[in-house]
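thread from #wetlab-drylab

HS: before we spend reagent money on co-crystallization trials with uridine-5'-diphosphate, can we at least see a predicted complex? here's what I'd submit
DV: go for it
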Amino acid sequence: MAQGHMIPILDMVKLFGLRGVKTTIVTTPVNLPLISKAIKRTKDLGVEIDVKIVKFPSTEAGLPKGCENLDAITDNEIEMTIKFFKGTSMLQEPLELLLEECKPDCIVADMFFPWTTDAAAKFGIPRLVFHGTSFFAMCSSECVATHEPHKKVSSDSEPFLVPGLPGDIKLTRTQLPDYAGLDAGNEIAKLLKDANEVELKSFGVVFNSFYELEPAYADYYRKVMGRRAWHIGPVSLCNRDAQDKASRGKQASIDEHKCLKWLNAKKPNSVVYICFGSLACLDSAQLMEIAIGIEASGQEFIWVVRKNKKDEEEEEDWLPEGFEKRIEGKGLIVRGWAPQVLILEHKAMGGFVTHCGWNSILEGVTAGVPMITWPTFAEQFYNEKLVTQVLKIGVGVGVQQWARQRTAIEDFVRRERIEKRVKEIMVGDEAEEMRSRAKVLGEMARRAVEKEGSSHSDFNALIEELKVLRSSTKET
Ligand code: UDP
């Protein structure tokens, strides 16, 4: 129940549907309007989709009424998030009633719903897990939890190699999620531990990734960690026309035609896109540094600014004086939600400043743009290392501190660094090298989802396996 999970799941529904598989989406009243446009567009293609609504027990879980999506949590983040997950676990009973009624052949459920594996087992059907992240992050997290390299360095800032993980990946202690060692003892760490254990009892995991992007880690996950997995991405590529791309997630705060018109007037590879996903919140001081840094870089840009706290929304204290007048025609500020995939895939796009949410990274890879990595929370620091140390299609902005709360990000990046990094991905030989590596990956991504491509084939294999399972269960 967060955009970064719901968006790729909706794309997955479309992919199943385009292969003739009927799907039923289970959601809650407040989340329904966020997905209904995309569902309608997919149905218009002749795809069979049913939607079932379950009441979200916000009040019973101690949440304000209507708090049914993680992005609705803006205060007391840790306490409210724990309550939020408590609320989701109360959905087991209504889900089981739905399973009784709909009799599906399989459940695909997000990692944050570990209890769905038990629910599925009661009905003798398989449960597939969707993590919404990379093979790389899953493998890194497992290696860190197993070998605890962060306990063997003498300071928070001393880099260590992640033992066992292919590729000599370096991290520091402060970049690790505090649940990485699984000894944090908090509720969220416990939930993630459950999710990890349940994965072994589930039918397997579907990844929004493609084999050629991270072959060593896809192999490691399957062969060394012994997990069953299917890579079916990039799922965003199932959206072929502009309207589909613009319908992902929330209602965009900018008219897509206006946005395209603005981009059409720009030279190829000349615009930087800055976006921190659907949850991370930067404070006014940090936004001000971005504004000054990007202006000083001399590059054209689209910058998505999303402030979480309602009272801050009205205030524009994050913009230098006269900024918008000076950047007229050169920069576009989107306050709220941008049609990200539509923007990234435009030929004018030259670089992406990203918070390293997995969807954003994959969308950036698919678009073939070099990135400035600016991880904030969750598994984003792992994703950063894939981009900078393995794929070499980006440079780190230099943040060191994993944020326990996405609404209280501590690390602060100065304007000079932002300016420097933007220039590094946009101009010069190194930028060109990164860009050409990124473009090659973008082409591979497209091939992966075409007929006989790696993701296309793995998805077919998954469906075939589910069919065999269904007929064998029916026979017994
Ligand atoms: N997104 C978007 N417009 C925005 C912000 C985000 O379309 O203004 C989409 C983005 O394309 C991606 C998802 O929201 O598909 C964000 O997921 P990600 O994993 O990158 O980050 P999260 O929001 O989960 O931190």
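DV: The chain has a mean pLDDT of 94.
HS: ok that's useful, forwarding to the group
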